[in-house]
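Tutorial handout. Part one gives the primary structure; part two gives the three-dimensional structure as tokens.
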Amino acid sequence: MNGFEKRKAMIKGNIMKTTMVMLRTWEPKRLRIADIAKEAEVSQVTIYNYFGSKEELLKESFKDFIQRAIREFEEEMLKQQSLRELISYTIFKEKETYYNLSPALIKEVMFDDPEMYAYIQEQYDTKIIPLMVKMLEDGKASGEISDKVSVEAFLMLIQIYMKSSEEMLGVMEKHENKAAFLDELLHLFFYGLCGQELPKI
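Part two.
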């Protein structure tokens, strides 16, 4: 990558990160290219040249967000942490996401758009699931996960979770205490009805 390409990548990255930060307090429909350009300290022309439209900018920003989350999870796994530490990290990142981005926003941008939903499904199939399977196998090897849990059963649970994500986000958005409700859902996902307490984070 030459100097021009590096500069272009840095500018695009800054625009996408700025967009994600602004979405913490702005509704997508009310967020304008002019607002993003001002906050990112670039011209509106630059944004249109790089992304073409606000809709494409939103999609690319969420795709970048997902890719960074996957890379961070891979890095955590490379640290050879215990299963408990990995689960703690996963819970923390999940809560952080829903703290910064409302369930309604995630549902609107990532699940209501067929293209984005297909992209997310592809990322789960090709990257997330292999990482989760490795986490399962490592956990079984270390004795942290029961040998009774097969990869097939685990993958089925992941697929159920994925197919129910949109509905869960809708319920969560209406819930009086979103953080507490998310804790319950994560507890059920990782530990089941009679499992241990969530790790302290």
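Part three, for discussion. The two ends are 39 Å apart (CA to CA). The chain has nine helices and no strands.
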